[in-house]
Fold:
Amino acid sequence: MASEKMLQLLNDQFNRELYSVNLYLSMASYCLSEDLDGFANFYRVQAQEETFHAMKQFDYIHQVEGKVTMQALSQPPAEFSGLTDLFEKTIAHEKEVSRSINELVQQALSESDFATHTFLQWFITEQVEEESTMHTLLKKLKMIGDNQSALYLMNEELGRRTFTAPAA
Amino acid sequence: MFQAGDIVRELHGTGSGTVTRILPGNRVAVLMDGWEMDYALAELVLVNRVAPNKATELPSAPESLGLSEELCLGFSQAPNSEHCDLFVFNNTANSVFIHLLIQPGTPDGRSVFRDLIKPAEKKRIHNFLPPVQGTGEAWCFQVVVLSNGKEEAIPPFQITKRFRPKDYNKYNLPGGEVLWYAMLEPPVIAPVSEQPPQELVTLRPSQVVDLHHDQIIDAATLAIMREEDILRQQVEHFKQQLDRAVVAGMDQITFIHGIGNGTLQQRILDFIHENPYQPTSLTAQPANERIYGQGAVVILIG
Ligand SMILES: [Fe+2]
Structure:
């Protein structure tokens, strides 16, 4: 059993993950419209990961005898001024997600809700990974600069990413 | 100076990886998060050099837990083993002297580890610690900072911290082993500044706080934030600033909340009404209309 407050925060987080799905689909669509199908694939897989996050939380909320309330979703941005802008916004978003996960962890600790605390550990590790992946890609993009053939290779590489449901 | 197989990390960043080959012009290629990237030698720091025949002998600790400024202690227990491995990671800019005690003050209290750990270094001492999970064991660490990244001696700085199992985070190592790690607050060394400290001025609570979202959230973050998260952050900022004002003994503080749909204003008024600071009284009044229009509130702190 988790507390009312904890369940509410988990429910907010669940809805935030769904927003992430939409945000990344919006980004995927932008990439497609710019003929960058590899980047589009990357964001599409990213959206699948976010769905996985949301469902993991959905399941947990029910495990601790809570119930999910779907919230109205804000509209994610649809226009971006280029790939750098895209990745900068992705990083800003992932940081925001990390911040809210940390808030949940803090709440779990302050309530001595160790079950939820343990549940959240997975997300902490996941956020560290997400942020570092995005940073690496942004760095790579900046290195590429105006080099079209390097961009072509990066696009090819990102096109090979596939979604595999993480273990545990 | 580097060779293929070396574990390196960025001098000014958080990335780390493995050197794959040496490139002409004092550059090296590094495999980082699955990408091969090109670095100048000067941009990298050597973290570890694995002898080729020893590389597969022991399960190795992660080079970094992915946190930029970290001083952490980790324990890992192989399946079916009674013993734990102890790891110390120092990704801070300072050399630290770590002294680890088990249950100080009891007959069991003993030093198990004393060593100097340089920046970007990880140490592994294996096979003599009891399992940390589930034993309720408390560990006491003393950390003495000896020098900063430039190898200048600095006055000893000591922190002592006791860790309990709930303080540990979990990190899955390859091969099914699990690393439990706990963060030590990296000792903060104040940068030597030649300018007179100005903090005193900026740390004083402001008399007027602008809660407009573009004043408290950077543009990139704002562009992707959900409306409800923006509001949440505005309310948080309001609470923080009010808290500072109350703690500092100010008698009033003005918040500019803007007009909008009135949600933020309502959240402020609700909070004032609840007033967690009782018996200190909080009274909301409309702010000077000629300056702020309808978009601000003065809170009198009594
Ligand atoms: Fe997520």
User: Anything to note?
Assistant: Residues 70 and 92 of chain B are 6 Å apart (CA to CA).
